[in-house]
Amino acid sequence: MKVVILTREYPPHVYGGAGVHVEYLSRELAKIVEVEVRRFGTEDSVPGRPGQPAVRSFAPWDAIHDGDRSSAALEVMSTDLAMASGMDRPSLVLSHTWYTNLAGHLAKLRYGIPHVATTHSLEPLRPRKAEQLAAGGYALSSFCERTGLEGADAVIAVSGAMRDDLLGVYPDIPPERVTVIHNGIDTDQFRRDAATDVVDRYAIDLSRPRVVFVGRITRQKGIPYLLRAAERLLQGTQLVLVAGSPDEPDVERDVAAGVHRLRERGRDVIWIEAMLPRRDLIQIVSHATVFGRPSLYEPLGILNLEAMACGVPVVATRTGGIPEVVEDGVTGWLVPFQPADDRSTPADPEALVDRLADRINDLLEHPDRAEAFGRASRARVEKRFTWSSVALATLEVYRGVTES
Hints:
The chain has helices at 17-29, 71-83, 98-111, 129-151, 160-169, 197-201, 223-230, 249-264, 278-286, 302-309, 349-365, 367-384, 387-402; strands spanning 2-7, 34-40, 54-58, 92-96, 115-119, 154-157, 178-180, 210-216, 238-244, 268-272, 290-293, 314-317, 332-335. By secondary structure, it is α/β, with parallel strands linked by helices. It folds into two domains: 2-184 and 386-402, Rossmann fold; 197-384, Rossmann fold, CATH 3.40.50. A seven-stranded parallel beta sheet has the order 3-2-1-4-5-6-7, sandwiched between helices. A six-stranded parallel beta sheet has the order 10-9-8-11-12-13, sandwiched between helices. It is globular.
């Protein structure tokens, strides 16, 4: 069997959960079957070796933007066309996110092979994307996603909540085609790092409680609500934000204003506006008292898994697939959350801020409980979320569509 994986993100360019998923899944699958990864980019191709995937890069056609943001979606579609050509002996093709769903569909038609799509999010549930891509671009991204998912031979959802959303948004997809396979974590790589060279470099004070947030600056991550909650945290708490790659200027302005407001009020905020090397990130997270994730939309939340693997308790919103990862009252606290109709804002922002502050303060004020939650977090990850088990479950889906 030869599996061709289509993705926008792949090392060294990984900025979200989908990219992490592809990086580790392709590595595990390559130990079992032949794997070729086709990614966006201009990097040189990497030939496959035993136990390692081959990697090829594809770039878009030249385009004249003239300030038209919707041209970005056309560039993605042009890359999809290039990706779908010149495949050598593919058994099946796997696409990730709307960026490659169309390429997967085209490869299915071109080579007469099954197409499996893995869903990490859904365009109709991300209406703010219309501001990033412009209305025409959002229509194109939604078209690519719908075409690929409705035409796929099988769909993998990264959580039960993602499966429910998928079948609600796309009722023409037969439920029996959709399988839930959670994301995994490399428990050898993601584990507590007791060293302090990185935290010292960023002047993180280990003598005080520390709340750490990691993620992109995007509306769905809810950072402004965490900043407001930070005003109500136990005095002396240090807030550490590892947050960069803004995709919406107004959200970046909100975050900057929130950080400024906290500092004016005497609160200690360290804002690292960069995508850090993995070792740096692991060490910073390892030294967190609490890992805070106030997500407004989160199909699973792979960063929560990374924090749990480092033995850190998580306080997160009860939304999407997060309750399938964070066990309330065992590995952390889940904050009740009710979204507004557009899913991009909470129905009651003040209630969300109050609940976040209350649950984080509970762990700051009860360090023994926080430590117990952290130990339980590590144990849960080791038992339930490994990439080897993800790869085996995924391979069963592949065999189901190639042997039928």
